[in-house]
UniProtKB/TrEMBL annotation:
PANTHER family listed in its UniProt record: SNF2/RAD54 HELICASE FAMILY (PTHR10799)
The name this protein goes by in its record: 16446_t:CDS:1
Organism: Acaulospora morrowiae
One function term, GO molecular function aspect: ATP binding
Domain of life: Eukaryota
Amino acid sequence: LMPKDFQVCITSYEMCLIEKAALKKFAFQYIIIDEAHRIKNENSMLSQIVRVFKSRNRLLITGTPLQNNLHELWALLNFLLPDVFSSAEDFDSWFSSQGGDQDSVIQQLHKVLRPFLLRRIKSDVEKSLLPKKEINLYV
């Protein structure tokens, strides 16, 4: 890959792992990651590699931003804004300091996520689609 030879680079996670040295040389305008839950573990090789890539803007796309615990959410937010969400310990302790009051934790979480999360449900966005029809084909 040579700088300025392309405007868009679409790749897979596997190619990021293989071509990390080449991709690290670029300063991207955008890094857009689909299936972003794959980088929720900040210690994974993939997560560490994509964090090194330089970009002006970052966008994560996932249907499951929160799967197991809040720490995984921190890993995603840290990828988006490492200067703002720099400390996992501070993030974890901030939410655990809410005690056992789940409503308070959820309210705080909504406040934190409001600027970063855009949630779209098919029923809210697309009104003209017919209901899904499933057909089983037996072979």
